[in-house]
Amino acid sequence: MVERAGRALLSRRRRELLLGAVVLALLAALPLGVSGAYLRGLIVLALLYAGLSQAWNILGGYCGQISLGHALYFGIGAYTSALLFTRAGLSPFIGMFAGGLLSGLSAFLVGIPCFRLSGHYYAIATIVIGMMAALLASNWDFINAAQGITIPFHGEAWRNLQFRTAVLPFHYVMLVYAALMWLIAWVIEGSRWGFYWRAVKDDVTAARSLGVSIYPSKLAAAAISGAATGIGGALYAQYVGFIDPESAFDLSLSVLIALPAVVGGIGTLWGPLLGAAVLIPVQQLSVAWFGSAAGGIDLMVYGALIMVLALSRPEGLVSFFHPRARQEAVDHG
Amino acid sequence: MGLLYAVVAAGLTLIFGLMNVVNFAHGALLMAAMYATWLIHRSTGLDPLLQLPLVAALLFGTGVAIYRVLIARTLQIRVNGAMVQIFTTFGLSIFLVGLAQLVFGSDFQSINASFLGGRTLAFGAVVLPLPLVASGVVSLLVFLALFRLSRTEFGRALEATREDFEAVALIGVDRDRIFGIGWGIGAAAVGIAGVLLANFYYISPDVGTNFALIAYVAVALGGFGSILGALIAGLVIGLTEALTALVVDPSLKQIGIFLIYLAVLMFRPRGLFGKL
Amino acid sequence: MAEPLLQIREISKSFGSVAANVDISFDVTEGEILGLIGPNGAGKSSLFNIIAGEIAPDRGEILFAGQRISGIGAVACARLGIGRTFQVVRSFDSMTVLENVMVGAFLRARRTRAALRRAEEVIAVCGLAGRSDTVAHRLSPPEKRRLEIARALATDPRLLLLDEVLTGLTPTEAREGMQLVRDLRAQGITIIMVEHVMEVLLPLIDRAVVLNLGRKLVEGVPAEIVRHPEVIRAYLGDRYSG
Predict the structure, then answer these.
(1) What is the CATH number of domain B2-267?
(2) Which chains touch B (3 or more CB pairs under 8 A)?
(3) Nearest Cα residue to C12 out of C39, C45, C50, C41
(4) How many CB pairs under 8 A join A and B?
(5) What mean pLDDT is reported for chain C?
(6) ipTM surpassing 0.90, yes or no?
(7) A34-70 pLDDT per residue, tens
(8) Which residue of A has its CA nearest to C151?
(9) Are B93 and A303 inside 8 Å of each other by CB?
């Protein structure tokens, strides 16, 4: 009877992995059923945000530090890669690596002082840092200040991560990115850190009495989250071919990175993916349908959706698949 | 300007500090107040200064409504309560901005023929724009009012409700009413700020965001839950911004504020006077 | 004779104007079960928290296996091998019993599989085997107490501080609990217990330290304690002593 419980845990983990593989396969096959650059582009974007949001989720959801300044790391990754590509001719794969390293380091450095702050103070501190970065970037001539950097087309090649008209390769690039983030989250969930973070969220004093000290693990989580976000930024730069402070460091980007995880289910494995799958299409489509005609409706739809989702499904969209989770959430009001 | 920031901050700290709720729609409310002022001015010619009580009442009602419709629900939620509040109000903010864009368009508006607009006041050698001075005065009054309020029975009830949400119900306090009024007052404070701003600042759907951000920083700097903190923080911010603008490129003037914020938080993680 | 596992030297702690502990000194030998008794307000919880590292004393020091531990903090104490339960149960409510205990197990076992195995062993010992998959907040109060013990046990402690784990149990539950405590001692764990219910405690412990109003009153074997006039007076008031 005892071993049954342990086995239940392990088999649940295996099932999750299996499900992940199935979803991966489905998403990989998706382009076969979907044609048209616009729709494919939409999916690429959704996958990117799924990855970004999962990266955010590692720090925000699992570790419990709600950062609203993640655009900082996105921007650092994007700019590093873009600069290395345009000025040094280095492949984006190298740029991605360098960008990830820098953004991970930044996240680590930001964490050192900021993790002493609790909840809302921390959130605002991250907002402030993000805005500072945005302001500085807009005025730093080395990186072209507010004009941004245009990434010239160097020829279609995987080495350059550039493709003339095809969106398809990027579908797979972003898919790999999102899948990798999912995997990292899966690993963390079942790891010592994952357990420790959950314990601290439930009862800090009890956790301490068991020898749980999470400051080092928080810094590690920040570094991972930051690096991963940076890599996403580098990918984005190559995909879109242009970055500027407004698109890379803006507060709204920080929120957009966090939103899918929150809407989908913060601190869960599938939350970010579900959230991105819902939010990104809605946002893009409403801009397309309503955007120009009657300016503002797209925002209204978007805003209303967020409100409705946040209120009706606070534990996230994942609760549609996990009735128990929902019950736990609303049980003791 | 510092005082104006402070008033917006005060409204926010009231709602947040006293009720453990973050209101990310504060900026949108400011924007709403400014548009309301503009609209009323356009249609009835009523001077903004005289509109103060009107708009304040309007926003009060709005605040209560928001509470009842949205926020009350969030308090029932056990899991991720804070996150839900943040994102619900955030969604509301986006919604309102979209609404404003729809109704008023994205162009800038302004009030030109107001009692205060365009005039200046001279204090010896210093010439200050009248609207700014008036705003400062009114803001100060608002603060004093809020201060007195926090000392009253209502203020204490509000604080008690925040501290122990469950227990308060047992002693017969109507939580919804208290919080509703709290929200109303907070919104009214923002409304007043909006009216004052409308005198000399341009009006557009986006106008709220920047002010709201400063307000959050002010509240965090002053410490959540402290009205005095919000006041002092607001002043500090206003001052810092002005000084920074003298030293560096004006587009960077907000950096000073941010640096001060971070510096203070390093030494006092709960803000200057924070109770949370 | 080896040095005592725990040496408490003139520990004093005040909270504001209230003196919770005044000059408390005693030793705890390895492998014994020590009872910490005294009426309400005697300073037992405060002392527990100091030993466990949760609070730092104002004066005095504590040596654990010869090492100074006063003021090093709860996390460090846990790492050194001091485990504890809380009087008001603090379970990780969103996690299952198994997961709860694993949090404890992770202190010594870095990898999940190892922590899992350790947790399973501990759960078996504590009699929670059938409830491993149950979410903690659905447990009955006695089960929650066992969970507290199991979790602390999973950290492989040398010293275990049990805070009123036998209070409010039915006679059957109490007997099972007492047997568990004896089993733990048989594994080589030193135990300090705080209890209110004398009938349950006295048969279990080797020695007792009695506290009253912040000071140590007496220490000795149960038989002596029970007859000690000051102890009787502390508990029952002046009328019954002498």
Answers:
(1) 1.10.3470
(2) A
(3) C50
(4) 152
(5) 87
(6) no
(7) 777 788 888 889 999 999 999 999 998 888 788 888 9
(8) A210
(9) yes
